Automatic annotation (TrEMBL):
This is Cytochrome oxidase assembly protein. It is a multi-pass membrane protein. Keywords: Cell membrane, Disulfide bond, Heme biosynthesis, Iron, Membrane, Metal-binding, Oxidoreductase, Transmembrane, Transmembrane helix. Pathway: Porphyrin-containing compound metabolism. The keyword Lyase does not apply. GO terms for molecular function: metal ion binding; oxidoreductase activity. The chain crosses the membrane at residues 66-87. InterPro entries: COX15/CtaA_fam, COX15/CtaA_HemeA_synthase. The keyword DNA-binding does not apply. One of its GO terms (biological process) is heme A biosynthetic process.
């Protein structure tokens, strides 16, 4: 289980880096100006409101939020890996 979690975190880290590059190159870095969420919602709002501080571009907002979701999942995986490593029952050192 520990090795599978490490491999999944490694794969997801690569995905987050690629998504971050794509988000940057698509100029979608400020598709959602606030955190967490997008314009006060957990998902991207489907219609623009006059109370938004910036005009809503749905394509840019979704690119940014997908990157944020992937990075959040990666963060949770890293926390899980920490707890797996800290509380595992196998000996950490081999005898000589």
């Amino acid at each position: 289980m520990y090795t599978k979690t490490l491999n999944l975190a490694l794969l997801l880290a690569v995905v987050v880096v690629v998504l971050g590059a794509y988000t940057r190159l698509a100029d979608a870095g400020l598709g959602c100006p606030d955190w967490p969420g997008c314009y006060g919602k957990l998902i991207v709002p489907d219609v623009a409101s006059s109370e938004f501080e910036r005009p809503l571009d749905l394509a840019k907002a979704w690119k940014e939020m997908i990157h944020r979701y992937a990075a959040s999942i990666l963060g949770l995986l890293i926390v899980a890996i920490f707890f797996f490593a800290a509380f595992r029952k196998t000996p950490r050192y081999q005898s000589i």
